[in-house]
Amino acid sequence: MTDRRNIYFFYKKSEETDEQCKKLKHLAEEHGFRVVHHHNEANIIASIGGDGTFLQAVRKTNFRDDCLYVGVAKKGKAHLYADFNIHDTDKMIEATNSEQIEVRKYPLIDVTVDGTSFQCLNEVSIRSSIIKTFVMDVYIDDLHFETFRGDGMIVSTPTGSTAYNKSVEGAVVDPLLPCIQVTELASLNNNTYRTLGSPFILSADRKLTLKIVQDGNDYPIIGLDNEAFSTMHVKEVEVSLSGKMIKTIKLKDNSFWEKVRRTFL
């Protein structure tokens, strides 16, 4: 990893975190790294915090696919995206100095809301903002698949199918599978209305289109990873698997499934 020596630290400002990061910066410089003050100058972006901070680091640095993202947890065990613990500096130095470093790649999804484009590492969620059934026509490519009635829907990457999605009976998907998962939130199923009623997986070549029925419930809450998107009169949301991937350091004995076991079992 001798060609990756510019490192940028992303974290939420606090007295405690400032002091912890000061020590990490000194340690990085002692081992031949150059600490930079803007992420555009970096080829390593280190997120200090939990998985939420990692998602913010990726989003705020524009989902760069030309650098390595490193997640460092401040408390407890490492998380799904944060492979290191802030107190285990030996493992960080060993990993970043290795010339035979392995890289883990996480897929992104491309999201378009009424012509405005975004990217997500976890998921895009769309939910009713009022106490009223939310109605959407669901299209897979050009096929009208179903008319959804319920609280909303989650469309996720493979890695976005772990915490939030798993809590609503979504599957845990191997990130090596290039796909997106679609999970309904409290769908209405009776003798009059019918949806599939279970999560389903779409291949990398598919496009999902959600057309919101304009029946007065057209101010939905749209979540992009852990950020809310504020908009009015949403008519259409398109989702497809992106050609870009986020790269992270792959540690020995820390595969995705070992992370899932550590987090949920």
What does this structure look like?
- By secondary structure, the chain is an alpha/beta fold.
- The two termini are 34 Å apart.
Short description:
This protein has 265 residues and is α/β, with parallel strands linked by helices.
| Secondary structure: helix percent | 10-25%
What is the number of helical segments per DSSP (H or I, 4+ residues)? 5
Q: Mean pLDDT, rounded to whole units? A: 89
What is the total tally of β strands? 17
Order of helices and strands: EHEEHEEHEEEEEEHEEEEEEH
Low-confidence stretches: none
Distance between the termini: 34 Å
- Largest pleated sheet: 11 strands, mixed
Radius of gyration: 20 Å
Beta strand %: 35-45%
Helix and strand content put the structural class at alpha/beta
Give the overall silhouette: elongated
Topology, pairings included?
Elements: E1 6-11, H1 15-30, E2 34-35, E3 44-48, H2 51-60, E4 68-73, E5 84-85, H3 89-97, E6 102-113, E7 116-120, E8 123-127, E9 134-140, E10 143-150, E11 152-156, H4 164-167, E12 179-185, E13 200-203, E14 207-212, E15 221-224, E16 227-229, E17 236-250, H5 256-264
Name the features.
265 residues; elongated; 5 helices; 17 strands; 6-stranded antiparallel sheet; alpha/beta; single chain
